[in-house]
Amino acid sequence: MTRSLIKPFQLMPFLLSGGADHFGFTPRQLSIMCGSHNGTDEHRDVVISNLSLAGNRPEFLQCGCHKPIFMDYTKENPLHGEDKDALRHNCSGKHSGFLAHAKFLGDDVAEYLNPNSKTQTMIREQLASYCEVDEGSMPRGTDGCSAPNYAVPIKNLALGFKKLANGEGSSDKERAVATRIRSAMQEYPHLVSGERRFDLDLMRAFPGNVVCKVGAESIEGFGLANPSIGICVKINDGASRALWPICVAVLKQLGIIANTTETPSLKRHERPEVRNYRETLTGHIETTFTLRRA
Predict the structure, then answer these.
(1) pLDDT tens readout for residues 186-201
(2) pLDDT band for position 276 (50/70/90)?
(3) Cβ distance 89 to 103 under 8 Å?
(4) Peptide bond preceding 227: is omega within 30 degrees of 0, i.e. cis?
(5) What is the pLDDT of residues 150-161, one digit of tens each?
(6) Which terminus has fewer CB within 10 Å in the chain: N or C?
């Protein structure tokens, strides 16, 4: 499954339908709809603003709850119910967009995750069209946040990110929407992910030149405008610790970066430390693969 990797594509129908303009969503608000955010106070506040603007309420969210991602990095414990707050769920931004689109289309907001709703039907059709894959060939599953999710070949996901990074589309309207989503993500990358996250560090390494999105179970998609390229990396066993060293290695082997001294925000992802529960350094993760043409 593509998991959260496809969030930028899931946002496209909302803009294409005119819903985002109808409610007056800003680039800042659109960016978090593409994100798997850290659940900080800022992230929470932006999601609240998204819900309010479309006349929705926090209790409408059907994404569930989890310990906010930022607490995993800061080693804080959820002492004030943060782990029971759906607004802090990493997918709440996407869900706020789903709810706004459902409201605009006249869907029952209680059914906004129904795969057969207008909201989710438009998302499925747009995902297939933009990534140039036959809609009938995409098996459907259910994401961790309860949204419909789809299996898409990684070459088509890479193509989708290449198109997004370059503002490409099949019509003037689609090109304008792709450019708008790309610009929102690039202007507010910390709302797409958060501090100490690879997605934010990658967008800081290539300001104005890259769009990227991680998905659960170890999948990463990113596209660059210069050079015009799309990349998707998937770790088969779903474990994420090797994902970002591999992404950095891919960039190096493709000649996009010579070494991480040119992109210091990526340096800690190149050869990350492995530490035990006493914080004793026990090793590093290193890549040993070489890219080859299929």
Answers:
(1) 999 999 999 999 999 9
(2) very high
(3) no
(4) yes
(5) 999 999 999 999
(6) C
